[in-house]
Amino acid sequence: MAGEIQRYDFVESLFYQDLAVSPELDSYVHGYRLDRIDHAETSFHHDADERLYRLTMACVDQFFISVGKLLKKSGMSVLKMWVQKYERGAYHPVHVHATDRDNYSFVFYIDCTEESAATMFYNVGFPYVDHGAFKVKPVKGRCVLFPGAMPHEALPNRDERRLIVSGNIAYTDLPPSA
Length: 178
Hints:
There is one protein chain. The chain is an alpha+beta fold. The protein has a single domain, classed as q2cbj1_9rhob like domain (Jelly Rolls, Sandwich). It has two helices and eleven strands, in the order βαββαββββββββ. The strands form two sheets. Strands 1-9-6-11-4-3-2 form a seven-stranded antiparallel sheet. The longest helix is centred in the middle third of the chain and has 21 residues, at 50-70. The N and C termini lie far apart (38 Å).
């Protein structure tokens, strides 16, 4: 007699919510000096400071906590944060941020227009396995949180105002129940 068919689904989720960008964060991020780097056709500020962390987290913290609850996680910590500006024609090719199970990444749109480049997200395993893509249109205040291993890219920008804060966070597990 044959056994029952067993099933295990592999699922990765992306979360997003439209939030308010505080005037303080908006002003502070617009004041950063940004530099070109080798691995992307865009400008970065990699040396995030305590004020950037504080101002950004004041806007996104409750969203991150709410997603953590959905994931059954007890806490989280910010691993890294940076500012990125896309001039006309700038883009960031397909990449991932981390492969650890509990590492998540985020994109928080600070300034953008209808012409600003979308962010494309692909299933884990892309480009070797392509089960589709999901396009997120930039909206000021939209925050997207996704597994760090999820491939994504910023398409070529069609304006001068696509400005984001991005970063990586690590969630922690709930302790095992007794």
